[in-house]
Amino acid sequence: MSSAMIMEIIYTVLAAVAFAIGAKVYFKKGAPLYAQMVVCMLGCRFLQGLFETLMVRGNLDLNSVSLAGLGQLAQLLFLICANYGTIDSLCDDGSKAYRKYRIIAAIVPLAVVAYFFLTKRGTTDTTPEVVMRLFSVVIPMIALYFHVKHLIIKDVEGGLIKNLRFYNLLGVLNCLAFFVGLFTMPMSVPWYIAFIIYDIVTIAILPALRSGLKKLNI
User: Fold this and answer.
1) What is the 3-state secondary structure (H, E, C) of the chain?
2) Helices 67-83 and 165-183, interaxial angle, to 10°?
3) Helix 189-215 with 165-183: angle, nearest 10 deg
4) What pLDDT is stored for residue 172 in this prediction?
5) What pLDDT, on a 0 to 100 scale, did the predictor assign at position 194?
6) What pLDDT, on a 0 to 100 scale, did the predictor assign at position 61?
7) Rounded to an integer, what distance in angstroms lies between the CA atom of residue 39 and that of residue 37?
8) What is the mean pLDDT of each run of 10 residues along the chain (218 residues)?
9) Cα–Cα distance between 11 and 181 in angstroms, integer?
10) Cα(8)–Cα(89) distance, rounded to whole angstroms?
């Protein structure tokens, strides 16, 4: 069994366990929608890992367009949905006072993507592949924007931002790992590092969120 297969299996099992625990805790009447979105993200994580395991077994390109890749983007969409709306409106009313946080949060994903595109060397990507990669970075860039913004923005009454900072830090790491996995070769050292970060986020993100919500009495 290859090291890539072992990594994929570990990732898939961790995601399955995290999703099962999250579903038991938050898929019930009265549970916060914010948490349910994160649980749905873990469900997509499990499906992504399952498909990628099958792809590794079939010696398929992990960076090709597939259900696994769509599952990865679906994860980020759920994270965007969790942070956008009520949570974001509570910490940012759109006034000039919060403009600097919005600017910083926007610069970070733009800088990350620019770095990977400018430092990528020796590739043989065709034009359609480059276009697809450009399209694929839009969703993670938006997710990273909200996580960075909610990580650095000043706290609001009740400690909403403070108690969710660790969760948003994990969200930032998750998005960065996505970019590393997207722009590096499968089975390379950066690819393995991204996988380890994914595993850490998979294990820690639900407890981090649950701890923050408990402190907020949610």
Assistant:
1) CCHHHHHHHHHHHHHHHHHHHHHHHHCCCCCCHHHHHHHHHHHHHHHHHHHHHHHHHCCCCCCCCCHHHHHHHHHHHHHHHHHCCHHHHHHCCCCHHHHHHHHHHHHHHHHHHHHHHHHCCCCCCCHHHHHHHHHHHHHHHHHHHHHHHHHHCCCCCCCHHHHCHHHHHHHHHHHHHHHHHHHCCCCCHHHHHHHHHHHHHHHHHHHHHHHHHHHCCC
2) 150
3) 160
4) 96
5) 92
6) 57
7) 5
8) 85 95 91 92 92 75 62 89 84 89 95 83 52 76 95 86 93 93 84 93 94 82
9) 14
10) 37
Note the pLDDT of residue 164: 92
Q: For residue 190, which amino acid is it?
A: P
* Inter-CA distances, 212 with 26, 80, 159, 174, Å: 14, 18, 9, 18
pLDDT value at residue 122: 45
Q: Tell me, what amino acid is at 108? A: V
Query: Rounded to an integer, what distance in angstroms lies between the CA atom of residue 206 and that of residue 37?
Result: 11
Residues in CB range of 39: below 8 A, 6 or more apart: 19, 22, 23, 25, 26, 27, 206
The token duo for 13 is 């099992």
